[in-house]
Amino acid sequence: MATRSSESLDAAGVKEEQRTTWNEMSANWYSVRQDFERGAGTVTTRLLELAGLREGQVVLDVATGPGEPALSVARIVGDTGKVVGIDISPGMIEIARRRAAELTNVEFIEADLESVELPADHFDVALSRFGLMFAIDHVATFRALIRLLAPGGVLAAAVWGPPAKHLMTTGPAALGDRLELPTPAPGTPGPFSMSDARQLADELTEAGFTDVAVVERTVPFRFESVDDYVQFNKRALPPSMVRTARGRLSDDEIDTIMADAVAGLVADDGSLPLPSAALLLRAVAPA
Q1: Can you give the pLDDT at residue 93?
Q2: Whether the predicted model's global pTM rises above the 0.90 cut
């Protein structure tokens, strides 16, 4: 079975680049979280349903970023439960810890899933919202999750679906085209590396998960105006892309490229709906 194991990549270099990128992005990403959560919050709600969360459970949140869905989970598992959020970026972890300052059942750890020192067979549930697709070796990552889950434990996660159905990235994609940025090599971790539902299900099964289900869901992103969308992207884009753009284009040109890309999507009321495909997966660790 063909999998995207990315054996030719420099794993240490890729992870260090990811750590640096998300560190640089952490403050800006947190500043635009409300725009993102208007759509992504619906995904969190569905993940919690898929996981079947209940009071007293021990839950792992992988690639927690600034703390979601860990903070939402904490309200469900209660004082008798426990939530551990891990992320490769210390900047993201610092923000998550600040947000959880009043909670006693949440812990945030700077860690990479494939090397984190957490006890085996420990977690009832593992969650991840838009983080797993940055894994270098998908099957190895899923096997790492099986090690951490108790037998019969549930993995519920969301990754981005096919790029053609992901209108949220319309502006950045147009900017990337204008800058003639290189296309990532096959197997490179990134937003759409798990966007093939059949491939994703095969990788989960190869890793050893059972009862695997992958379904597509539309995330209802919406901005009040095109300008709001452009300003969101200028804060949420990877810093390296922003630096490249500002080295070649004026701010007005950057704004115009992204605005023109979505001009045909504006609703009658002037708002900008950008429905975007996600894949929601549920799988069970072998008993």
Answers
A1: 97
A2: yes
Contact by Cβ (8 Å): 237, 262? no
Q: What angle do CA 128, 201, 204 make, to 5 degrees?
A: 65
* Contact predicate 43/109, CB 8 Å: no
Strand 82-87 with 272-284, pairing: unpaired
Residues 179-190, mean pLDDT to the nearest whole number: 87
- Angle ∠(38,88,218) on CA atoms, nearest 5: 30
83, containing H or E segment: strand 82-87
Burial of residue 194 (CB within 10 Å: 0-12, 13-18, 19+) is buried
Check pLDDT > 80 for residue 4: no
28 exposure class (CB count in 10 Å sphere: 0-12, 13-18, 19+): middle
How many other C-beta atoms can be found within 10 angstroms of the C-beta atom of residue 142? Answer: 27
Dihedral of CA 223/226/230/231: which sign?
negative
Question: Measured between alpha carbons, how far is 233 from 251 in angstroms, rounded to an integer?
Answer: 12
DSSP-assigned letters across all residues of 9-47: S-HHHHHHHHHHHHHHHHHHHHHTHHHHHHHHHHHHHHH
d(CA 15, CA 10): 9
Query: In this structure, how many other beta carbons lie within 10 angstroms of the beta carbon of residue 86?
Result: 23
Q: Are 63 and 132 in contact (CB under 8 A)?
A: yes
Looking up tokens 């590396």, which residue turns up? 193
